[in-house]
Amino acid sequence: MTAELITQTLRVVDAQKLRLDALRPLPTHTESSMRDKLALDWTYHSNAIEGNTLTLRETKVVLEGIAIGGKSMQEHFEAINHNEAIRFVEEQARIQDPLATWQIQQIHSLILKNIRDGEAGRFRHENVAISGASATPPDYQHLAQEIQNLMVWHESALPTMHPVVRSVELHTRFVKIHPFIDGNGRTGRLLLNLELMKAGYPPAVIRKEDRVRYYDVLDEACVSGCYDGVTLLVAEALQRSLDVFLYLIEPRSVTN
Length: 256
Known about the structure:
This protein is mainly alpha-helical. The chain has one domain (2-249): Fic-like fold (Orthogonal Bundle). 65% of the residues lie in helices and 0% in strands. It contains ten helices and no strands. The protein has helices at 2-22, 28-49, 56-63, 73-95, 101-111, 143-157, 163-177, 184-198, 211-224, 228-249.
């Protein structure tokens, strides 16, 4: 049943993308406002999944340069940093450079800037266990090889896999490696959307409300190698993003 639902959802997503592509180039102000809305939602939800307590409105205010009383400096930096990382991802999607280790490290470096500068962009140098996860990340001494294997897999998957399915598997494989001490979740979701955006899709925003489901299907994928649950979750998130775009720009009939 899940496989059938994935197929149906991806069919809808691809039809929506074709409609969106047919309407390009988008009006400048419409595209800019959509970019800002999705970036804000993406920053808020990705940080909230990891425990940041800023509300959506507070996140918007922080990104406008205003401090929020009663909130920690770390929570402020998490919002600012994530927004900067989105801009980096957007630029990488625009220039279409092949996926490389330095891009992953740069995303992570932006995420932890002013929070854990000594670890920012640096692969972990110790072993870790992930609370609540069934899989154990690889030994830190093997991380360079694990990331290299990820690059090789990605190159082989480019011509053969549906972009959404490939993006999900890239995200999941990265999370399973867990190459950094902290910030792997945010980095992984940025990597997911880098892959989607390079293929011409808008970013998929995994909502805070789906946190438990997201962790459950991610854990299942890391243990079993079955990506159906996380693929469906991401495809549904992507469909929501496309719905918003198309609502704003598709011509609609006007009734008297």
